[in-house]
Design a protein that fits this description.
Blueprint lengths: L3 H17 L6 H4 L5 H17 L4 E7 L3 H7 L5 E6 L9 E2 L8 E10 L10 H7 E11 L10 H6 L4 E6 L3 E2 L10 E6 L2 E7 L7 H13 L10 E3 L13 E6 L5 E6 L1
Parallel strand pairs: 1-10, 3-12
Antiparallel strand pairs: 1-2, 4-5, 4-10, 5-6, 5-7, 8-9, 8-11, 11-12
Helix pairs in contact: 1-3, 5-7
């Protein structure tokens, strides 16, 4: 790992980029030599900074779950970021596009846990058994790196590019459909822009949650009761801007929407 001073510089640059909605040059360029361990340390530094300011961790997000994105960044496994209470937006509400650098939306199936999950050895079945309810969701992703010129260390340091989330109605697990078979249609201003299914997320969204629990074990952490988890995008992630409304329809699981102003 790099010295703490270099990680502190990286964390400060990302905080300023988010605060001012002004992206910065890739850390992989301006601070060469940052490795994956450094990147997660930078992420944790900024999460600690936000907790000190009054935010609360409510869960995690998993990214890079699609083969296309893994191929793009030359990796063979997902990454993760933190979800905080100040990132939550209201289903059907409005969000200022100007608060972000270059926002995108991703439709996902959100999990809410009834029991803790601690790796190693967590399975898809363990995740489903520990889940209290699931909901249709949209994640707002926003790279604080200029022009999206990211490598793995850039996106990991940048809290896996997570910026916001909103969930629709929760369905208790005993009434939930087969999550791998759930399909979604994503619309922007009434235009259909993408379709996908639960199986596009590592074969099953719960597999991504299992990966997360097992990976967090290496950091001495786990998933707690009440935590929410976004397991990864079911479709591509279109850019959105002011004046656009995004709606994701998940069939029997319901729908979720947000308008950007």
């Amino acid at each position: 790992m790099n010295p703490p001073e270099r990680r502190a510089v990286a964390a400060r640059r990302l905080r300023e980029a988010e605060r001012h909605a002004a992206p910065v040059e890739p850390l992989s360029v301006t601070l060469p030599g940052l490795d994956l361990a450094d990147a997660y340390a930078v992420q944790q530094d900024n999460i600690a900074h936000r907790l000190t300011a009054g935010a609360t961790v409510i869960g995690h997000k998993v990214g890079l779950t699609s083969p296309a994105m893994q191929h793009l960044l030359g990796v063979h496994e997902p990454d993760f970021g933190h979800l905080l209470d100040d990132m939550v937006q209201r289903d059907g509400g409005t969000v200022r596009a100007s608060r972000y650098c270059a926002p995108r939306v991703e439709p996902e199936i959100c999990f809410r846990l009834a029991r803790s999950l601690r790796g190693p050895g967590v399975t898809t079945g363990d995740v489903l058994a520990a889940t209290e309810a699931v909901a249709p969701a949209l994640e707002i992703v926003d790279s604080r790196i200029r022009d999206g010129r990211i490598t793995l260390v850039d996106t990991v340091a940048d809290n896996a590019s997570s910026a916001g989330l909103l969930c629709g109605s929760w369905t208790p697990m005993e009434y939930a459909p087969d999550l791998a078979a759930v399909t979604v249609d994503l619309h922007v201003n009434g235009d259909h822009v993408a379709s996908g299914s639960g199986k596009d997320v590592l074969g099953h969204p719960a597999a991504a949650v299992a990966w997360l629990a097992n990976t967090l074990a290496g950091f001495g952490a786990g998933l707690d009761p009440g935590h929410v988890i976004l397991p990864g995008a079911m479709t591509t992630a279109p850019f959105v801007s002011a004046g656009q409304k995004t709606v994701a329809r998940f069939g029997a699981l319901g729908s979720v929407s947000v308008s950007f102003v």
